[in-house]
Amino acid sequence: MALLALAHSRLTWAIGPANARQTVRLVYTRRMSNLDVLYLCPLGRQHQQWRLEAAPAGLNVIMRRNPSKAELLELIQQADVLISERSGAIDRDIIAAGARLRLIQRIGSLVHDIDLQAARDRGVPVAAQPIVGTIAVAEHVMMQMLAVLRRVMPEQLLLRQPPEQFIGGPARRTTEDVFCFNWSRQTRVGLLCGKTVGILGFGEIGAELARRLAGWQCHALYNKRAQLPPHIEQSFNIVYRDPENLLRESDIVVCLLPYFPETDGWLNAARIAMMKRGAALVEAGSGSVVDERAVVDALEQGHLSGAAFDTYEWEPIRPDNPLLQLIARNPEANVVLTPHIGSCNDVSAGEFARFYDNALRVLRGEPPLGIINYLIQPAFSDPRTC
Q1: Are 7 and 31 within 8 A, CB to CB?
Q2: DSSP class of 373
Q3: The whole model's pTM is what?
Q4: Burial level of 219, CB count in 10 A (0-12/13-18/19+)?
Q5: The pLDDT of residue 18 is above 50
Q6: Which residues pair with 223 in a beta bridge?
Q7: Which of helix, strand or coil describes residue 53?
Q8: β-bridge partners, 254
C-alpha cells in the first residue's frame, strides 16, 4: 500500500493504514548515522515529534506507534538499541530476533511486559528510566485531591471576610493560649488518609500515583484495558475493578484516560451517576474524555462533593467552559482548576533528549545506567564488525 510522505525540517514521517486504536498509523524516521535505534512510542504525532526532535547526532531513530508483532520482528533485526515507552510486550521471540541488540531501554518504570530473563540469556541489558513529567503529574494529582478534600478554593473566600463576621469582635494577636481555631466553623473538610481512590487508566502516571497513595494509607483501585499480573498488583497494593464498579466504590475517582475515539466523552452523565454520592472527581487525563457539563450538573445537584481539572475539552480553556461558568455563578463551588500544568516542573528541561542517554553510552562503548535485569556489564563490541 502506498504511503503518503511528509517532510518537516530534518524529520520525515509517513501516514499509513489505520490500526485498531488510531485513525492513522504514524511512521517516523530521523536519518543520522552510527547507531540504529528503534523507538516504540504509543503516543500521538505531536509527542512523537518532540521525541524525534530531541534525538542527538550519532543515532538513526526509527519510530513506530503500536506496530504488530510481525512488523516488530522484522524491524528489530536492524536495531542496535530498542527504546520502548510501553508499546506492547517485548517477549522472548522479539528479543531473539534482535541479533544486533545491545540495549533495551524502557522509558518509564513499568517493566513487567519485558522478558528480562530472555534478555539476560541473550546478554542484552535492560534499563529503565522513570519519566520526570509523569512524576510531576502524579504529584499534581495529589495536590488536586487534597485541595478538593480540604475545600481550599471556597475557603479562600473566607479569608477576605472581616473578623467580626465570625467571632463578633476584633481579631486578637495570637500567643500560646490565644488563637481562634476554625473561626469559620468548617464542617466538611475531608481527610485523604484511608480513602478509596479509583484510578481510571493505569499507565506510568497511574503507577507513580499508586506509589504515593500507599504512603497516605489509601485503598487504591484501578482499571486498564489489560489487567496487570498479580505480582505487579501486589507490589503497588492496588486492586483491579471493572470501570463501573470502580466508579461505584471510589471516594475519589482520578481520570487518567488517554484520548481515543472510543474514550471521547466516556465519563458522561450516566457514568458520573454511578459514582458515590459525595465522591470527588479529579481529571488529569485527556480533556475530551470527561463531559464537563455533566460534572457541573452533578456538583450543583450535590451528587459530587468537588472536582479538580487540569485538562479540558477545549484548550486553552474558553470563557464559556461550564466549570468557569459554575464558579462565576457560585464562587463557593468546590472546584479546583489549573491551566494544564500537571507535567510542569523545575527539573525536567531537556528530558526528551535524556531518553537517549543510554543509547549514546552504548555508542561510546560505555555501560548503560539503570540496568534492571541484573546483567554483568558486557563488553559492547559492535556485532556488525565481529
Answers
A1: no
A2: S
A3: 0.86
A4: middle
A5: no
A6: 200
A7: helix
A8: 199, 282
Question: Cell match 492513522: residue?
Answer: 24
Pairing relation of β-strands 126-129 and 103-107? parallel
pLDDT tens digits, residue range 62-116? Answer: 999 999 999 999 999 999 999 999 778 999 999 999 999 999 999 999 999 999 9
Which residue type does 45 have?
Answer: R
Please say whether the beta carbons of 119 and 373 come within 8 A.
yes
What type of residue sits at position 314?
W
Strand order in the sheet with 126-129: 4-8, 11-16, 25-30, 59-64, 35-40, 81-84, 103-107, 126-129
CA angle, residues 96, 82, 23, in degrees to nearest 5: 105
Phi, psi of 115 (to 5 degrees): -80, 90
| Coil/strand/helix, residue 23 | coil
Q: Quick one: angle between helices 132-149 and 204-215, nearest 10?
A: 50
β-strand pairing of 11-16 with 25-30: antiparallel
Compute how many other C-beta atoms are within 10 angstroms of the C-beta atom of residue 263. Answer: 18
Q: Which residue segments constitute the domains of the chain, with CATH numbers given? A: 4-125+347-363 (3.40.50.720), 134-151+188-337 (3.40.50.720)
Q: Which three cell numbers stand for residue 77?
A: 533485526
**In Å, how far are 56, 101, 116, 137, 224 from 382, measured between CA atoms?**
20, 10, 22, 39, 40
CA 127 to chain centre: 20
